[in-house]
Amino acid sequence: WCGPCIIELPELAKLRKSLPEDKFAVVPVDVLERLDAAKLGEFLGMHDAGDLPVYLDANRATQRGFVANELPLTVLIDSEGREVARAAGGQKWADPAVIAYFKALAETK
């Protein structure tokens, strides 16, 4: 039901494919739907994001833990498990400048 969330799905999938897997993980977390993992996987596939992993959080622990008051919410976590940035609302993750930024980050780590 979240339009900006659905729009981001294929862009997040593209971003994930563009980045080195040993440096970055894209982890979409479903906090509001009542779908099981198989149905959520089908949903991701319908929105050109079938390569993304499926994570369900029916208890909304991630939403509470990250104090997520807006959807979509993207949280960047470093290799030490610390939050280093967040972006609230829809973003353009497939933008070449965004991909270049993340690739540059990967080179510094």
How does this model look, in words?
The protein has 109 residues and is of the alpha+beta class. The protein is built from 4 helices and 4 strands. The strands form 2 sheets. A two-stranded parallel sheet has the order 1-2. It has a two-stranded antiparallel ribbon with strand order 3-4. The longest helix is centred in the first third of the chain and has 16 residues. The model has no long low-confidence stretch (mean pLDDT 87).
Task: Report how far the terminal alpha carbons are from each other.
Answer: 37 Å
Main sheet: strands, sense, barrel: 2 strands, parallel
Number of DSSP strands?
4
Summed up, the helix count is 4
Strand order of the largest sheet: 1-2
N-to-C order of helices and strands? HEHEHEEH
- The helix fraction, in percent, is 40-55%
Low-confidence spans:
none
Classify the secondary structure makeup into a structural class: alpha+beta
Average pLDDT, to the nearest integer? 87
Give a brief description.
The chain is an alpha+beta fold. The chain has helices at residues 3-18, 37-46, 61-65, 96-108, and strands at 29-30, 55-56, 73-77, 83-88.
